[in-house]
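queue> holo job accepted (zinc ion)
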Amino acid sequence: MGLSKSVVARAEHQAGDEKFASIERYSSVARTVEILSDAWGFLVLRECFFGVRRFEQFQALLQVPRTTLVQRLTKLTELGILNKMPVGGRHEYRFSDKGRDLYPTMLSLLAFGDKWLASGKPPPLQLFHKSCGAACSPRIACSHCNEPIDPRRVRYRDGPGAGSEMRTETRKRSRRASDPTVLERVRPCSVARTLQIIGDRWSFLVIREFFYGVRRFDEFQARLGIATNILADRLQRLTEEGVVIKRQYQERPPRFEYIMTEMGLDLYGSMLVMMRWGDKWLSGGKPPLTLRHSNCDHDFYASVVCDQCGEELNPRDVSYTLRYHLDDTVAAAA
Ligand SMILES: [Zn+2]
Ligand SMILES: [Zn+2]
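queue> job finished
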């Protein structure tokens, strides 16, 4: 991906962990990640996609403290992702259009986890596409030409929502990704595994900067206003996870840069899918960036399609086979 001027000249980040300022456009993916990377919130959404609707079901299935569950359901309802509705004398939580539209994001994270983080085991979930009748995997494709999207073949320009306001937030201290044992509670889950990598704020921002062409320590630091120890920690972790490699580019004095591996580059598709959701639901209908695919020379968004028939996947047309055992109490609740 080339470094377009408008992209480079974009955000101003205040130094320090507590305050973070960014231009609205750049936060739409970050906010999507934030919503998903709250471990309990994520679990609730995941179970929703498996058809869980009622408070007691969530509670039995996830073994979550009551107050925690109340908080998360309330938050997801406030965010407009779930609707609380009376059904037959009780309440059910159901996806709004905004919530259901997270499906491609979930699938893109699932595909990444299946491909890179399954440790040689078969993916925990097998998807079936009812429309074509095939066992399938999600694939991320250009909405115009249906070809895969290589980060080096995408250009940006300002979209209708460009020129955007600055928004400043006060944040809690930067957290590491949620405890994997929480995220994979009940079900082994490729989406959860992917969130281990991109689900904490700084890791996510560092990965994003990679896609803008940043490679060197001091450059990350200058752009993100990130504390040295946090940056060192995240780069080391991303190296251990296989997302980037550290390479010496100069001998005297020795200097190093980080570059993305094939695995790292493969995160790009998920980023674009999340960006689409953020653009659609958090930008007031005015996507700040327009993407252009060099392969077909058309504007596009990242769509998630069936790798067998090429059609876009939506929750109603997909069924699942679990490749793991759900214990009886859990199965009954589900
Ligand atoms: Zn294309
Ligand atoms: Zn299909």
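queue> Residues 267-282 form the longest helix (16 residues).
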